[in-house]
Amino acid sequence: MKNIIYLVCLLILPLGIQAQNKNVTEVTKKTVRTIKDSQGEKKVVKEQQIQQKQNIELENADSKSLNKDMKETPVETISTTTVTNPDGTTRTVAIDRSSAYQFESDNYILSLDASGYVVSDVNNVKIGLLRATSNNSYIFRGKNSISIGYFDTNGNLVLETYDDQSDQVTTRVFTRTQK
């Protein structure tokens, strides 16, 4: 009986001694957008979960002093966006590209919808749709054209359109701006 008690104590004791070696912060943002159309009101729920992890390291870990300073370490941020559509379907977006963009002197807004993004002007008039492909690019369907798009390292939307008459590819860069 004593042996069993000693064994249980030896197994539980290391769990209490183990120190925390990461700072973890979790934040959840929930946005509900109501869309009114001829069929009534529909709600699109966007939930963004942001998790930040930082390893805890000491500057002089080998020193014998009692109080030790913490060393700055990089913060790893993981963001997951979940969109619940009015019909109840849910999709997860790795990177939410919803923002305001500018091309030449015109301003546009890119916002999440049921299966991709909607591109609209500042008056909320729909300009086109942006749909993801399997190779990390997008297909843009406008009123008069179909283009292939991608986001550059600065977060700008780049659309490449093929012109059949001139046999040329034109490139338009929509610069990301603050909303």
Topology:
Elements: H1 2-17, E1 22-37, E2 40-55, E3 57-58, E4 70-71, E5 75-84, E6 90-93, E7 99-103, E8 106-112, E9 117-121, E10 126-132, E11 138-142, E12 146-151, E13 157-163, E14 168-177
Antiparallel strand pairs: 1-2, 2-5, 3-4, 5-6, 7-8, 7-14, 8-9, 9-10, 10-11, 11-12, 12-13, 13-14
Give a quick set of tags describing it.
mainly beta; eight-stranded antiparallel beta barrel; 1 helix
Write structural notes for this entry.
The chain has one helix spanning 2-17, and strands at 22-37, 40-55, 57-58, 70-71, 75-84, 90-93, 99-103, 106-112, 117-121, 126-132, 138-142, 146-151, 157-163, 168-177. It is mainly β. It has an eight-stranded antiparallel β-barrel. Strands 1-2-5-6 form a four-stranded antiparallel beta sheet, with no helix packed on it. Strand 11 (138-142) and strand 12 (146-151) form a beta hairpin. The mean pLDDT is 80.
Instruction: Give the biggest beta sheet.
Output: 8 strands, antiparallel, barrel
Structural class: mainly beta
As a whole number of angstroms, the C-alpha radius of gyration is: 25 Å
Number of strands: 14
The low-confidence runs, each spanning 5 or more residues with pLDDT under 50, are none
Which term fits the overall shape?
Answer: elongated
Quickly count the helices. Answer: 1
Query: How much of the residues is beta strand, in percent?
Result: over 45%
Strand order in space, largest sheet = 7-8-9-10-11-12-13-14
Average pLDDT confidence is 80
